[in-house]
Amino acid sequence: MNCLNENMTITPKDDAENEFLIGLLELQYGEPVEGKLKRLASDVSWAQGWPVEKRAFWNGEAFMWGRKIDMRLRSVISSELSAFNTGRNLDIGCGAFSYVPSVGFDVSEKMLQFNDQCSEKMVGDLNVRLPFADGVFDSVTAVFVLNYVENLNGLLLEVKRVLRKSGRFMVVLYSGQVNEWQRQKQVRELTLLGWRGVLEGSGFRVRVWEREGLWFLEGG
Is the pLDDT of residue 8 over 50? Predict the structure, then answer.
């Protein structure tokens, strides 16, 4: 008995996408499938150029986001960011999950599709001017993202520009090393004091603290 609806068809494109997603899961468990994934990526519109092309890399990571961050750490972050639940927040590099209701901004359209905390979603690059007017946000959050930004000083100036005068900027970073796979996209790794110095160099008054292996930097 054929279980498929007679109107349903499975195309080679569907097959390539399904195989690619299965391969991502295998890669997560250390299977040597990167070569196969590179070949499959050319037939998957949102993965073309994977893993070198930045957008394609993070599109692929979107399907694995639930396995990347421990639920205990998510709870810690949610607790520390609870004060950002009021007002209009911009979550830069928001990925597939925002810890407070936000306007989500990310390079990956697939990440944004999974993000249910964003009332507005915009695909864009953090290394260029942000597509928002001056002083339109009460707060900006950046969770596990600043170490992947090439033009960091430019981004921090953009954050100041889009924040209201009394607005706050919250940065969350992991105190250890990110996993080996995602580390290939990392462009800087600083100490907590180093990150504080970068933010202060862009004109923020910064308060820092550490909790459960996470660094929190609040700028105003």
Answer: no
